[in-house]
Design a protein that fits this description.
This protein has 505 residues and is α/β, with parallel strands linked by helices. It has 2 domains: 167 residues, 2-Layer Sandwich (Ribosomal Protein S5, domain 2); 234 residues, Rossmann fold. It contains 21 helices and 18 strands. Helix 1 links the parallel strand 3 and strand 4. Helix 1 crosses helix 2 and helix 19 packs across helix 20. The longest helix is centred in the C-terminal third of the chain and has 19 residues. The N and C termini lie far apart (75 Å). 47% of the residues are buried. The model has no long low-confidence stretch (mean pLDDT 90). The protein binds adenosine-5'-triphosphate (ATP), magnesium ion and zinc ion. The site of zinc ion has 8 residues, from loops.
Length: 505
């Protein structure tokens, strides 16, 4: 008899429907054939499933077994097919009535002793089940919270294959799992009030967060660059539910999800020795990289000049498009990768050229070579460069904590609302996106502002790109002040946020 079950396969961070057909015929030489582009892991599923059935006390009568995964022309990686395959065999062999499995979705691996084991991507699979109006989705207990995020489909999590069969057959009861309704505004654990002094750096960070600008922090060792960077997600607007879902799908596919919805903006800090696959994603089977794990949050690149040039080059696509496409001989996949880039570096190889308390041992040549490691195109995507000066222990002790993350975030939110109103109905969301005609329209300058900026450009020998960046940042500063027009102080402060251009750092 032929039976059909519904399951899903991942493509990027979404799932598509896969129909698993099982045919069991008692006549002929016993055999087990799988067709339909089943990749390595899927093929191994056969051994696991047969053992799991046996160890759960089921006996499949000998016969010819054919398993087909449709559509045949799409890649179907993974081990989420164990459970449907086992249940399909039970139904095809007449042990479970086929109508009891119709309309359900299944996504779990099986251990040899018949327990259900978690699989990556349950969130997109549960969304697929909901969209397909499934009766419910059956997952492993470890995936219950994740599947329970999705409204409009019931998720059940039996412990074992035997329990799953009994539940579907109506011989056992299971409670559907529900994740708690999302509270997306949990306080961020790190607060800016911990950072003493550094008012200018904090102000620049607030501007960056307000306009979604990328930012580079330049300063000697121990000046607090890492400390500042780690606090940035806490002043960004709270995640909207749809954004949280996007982020959670990425973590689900990357097997990094513990529990339900991701509620906070991510902060990812890959090391400069990480491979470009780790940073950008890829591998077999494909998995999202750091740029995608930072989606809707912050990607922090500490010691920027130490990163491999190749790794920095590949950042260009996500920085421009908010997503990353990876193609290998066996697949092509696109993952979301829309993040705020925060980078940090020392001003020179020894680190101390801007620290009055330490002597810098670097030659002018060495400093120039160090700076030259930052590729122009990458630097071009960074609107603000800010100096983070060394602060002495005594100064630190005397300093006040300054503004808290809450105060900073309130101002950021206000500036974001101004931008949302201005860009309604346009492809832009924030000042950092601004380009083309819209840039000149939203950043129109008066006569004296034009003169001032002209002089700054000449004096600092700024490029046309730097000029645009200054305009965008000035727009954000005006938005923070709630002003319609960009005025001189806004321009002056924006020029001050180009430390590398000024050659001061
Ligand atoms: N402004 C500050 N307020 C309070 N503590 C500070 C401040 N600056 C530095 N510190 C303390 O110094 C430690 C080192 O700071 P941090 O690691 O952020 O420096 P860094 O600039 O990233 O240095 P490196 O260049 O070595 O990476 C922090 O963990 C913190 O305890
Ligand atoms: Mg650091
Ligand atoms: Zn030095």
């Amino acid at each position: 008899m032929v039976v059909q079950l519904a399951c899903g396969a991942l493509e990027g961070v979404d799932a598509f429907r896969v129909d698993l057909e099982v045919d069991h015929t008692r006549k002929g030489v016993p055999s087990f054939v799988m067709v339909g582009l089943a990749e390595g892991a899927v093929r191994e599923s056969r051994e696991r499933v047969l053992k799991a059935l046996q160890n759960s006390g089921f006996r499949i009568p000998p016969g010819r077994i054919t398993v087909n995964l449709a559509p045949a022309d799409r890649r179907k990686e993974g081990s989420a097919y164990d459970l449907p395959l086992a249940l399909g065999l039970l139904a095809a062999a007449g042990i479970l009535p086929p109508e009891k499995i119709g309309g359900w979705f299944f996504a779990a691996e099986l251990s040899l002793d018949g327990r259900l084991k978690p699989v990556p991507g349950v969130l997109p699979l549960a969304i697929l089940a909901r969209n397909e109006k499934a009766r419910g989705i059956i997952v492993a207990p470890e995936n219950a919270a994740e599947a329970g995020i999705v409204e409009g489909v019931q998720a059940y999590a039996p412990q074992t294959l035997g329990e799953a069969a009994a539940f579907l057959d109506g011989r056992a009861e299971l409670e559907p799992s529900r994740s708690a309704p999302p509270a997306l505004d949990d306080p961020f654990p790190l607060d800016f009030s911990d950072v003493k002094g550094q008012e200018r750096a904090k102000r620049a960070i607030e501007i960056a967060a307000a306009g979604a600008h990328n930012i580079l922090l330049v300063g000697p060792p121990g000046s607090g660059k890492t400390m500042l960077a780690r606090r940035i997600p806490g002043i960004l607007p709270p995640l909207l539910f749809d954004e949280a879902l996007e982020v959670t799908k990425i973590y689900s596919v990357a097997r990094l999800l513990s529990g339900g919805l991701v509620r906070q903006r991510p902060f990812r800090a890959p090391h400069h020795s990480d491979s470009s696959v780790a940073i950008i994603g890829g591998g077999v089977p494909p998995h999202p990289g750091e740029v995608s794990l930072a989606h809707r949050g912050v990607l922090f690149l500490d010691e920027l000049p130490e990163f491999q040039r190749a790794a920095l080059e590949v950042l260009r696509q996500p920085l421009e498009q908010g997503s990353v496409s990876i193609s290998r001989s066996s697949y092509a996949v696109t993952y979301p990768a829309d993040f705020m880039l925060v980078a940090a570096m020392n001003p020179c190889p020894c680190g101390y050229s801007t620290d009055p308390r330490h002597e810098c041992t670097c030659s002018a040549n060495a400093i120039a070579r160090y700076r030259a490691r930052l590729s122009g195109p990458l630097l071009d995507r960074i609107d603000l460069h800010i100096e983070v000066p060394a602060v002495s222990y005594d100064e630190l002790r005397a300093q006040q904590g300054g503004p808290s993350s809450r105060e900073m975030r309130e101002r950021v939110l206000r500036a974001r609302r101004v931008q949302a109103r201005r860009y309604a109905g346009t492809p832009f969301r924030t000042n950092a996106d601004l380009g083309g005609a819209m840039l000149s329209e939203c950043c129109r300058l008066g006569r004296s502002e034009q003169d001032f900026l002209g002089k700054a450009v000449d004096a600092l020998a700024l490029s046309a790109r730097a000029y645009t960046r200054i305009l965008r940042v000035a727009r954000t500063i005006a938005d923070l002040e709630g002003e319609k027009d960009i005025s001189l102080p806004h321009i002056a402060e924006a020029v001050g946020c180009r430390a590398l251009d000024r050659g001061q750092a």
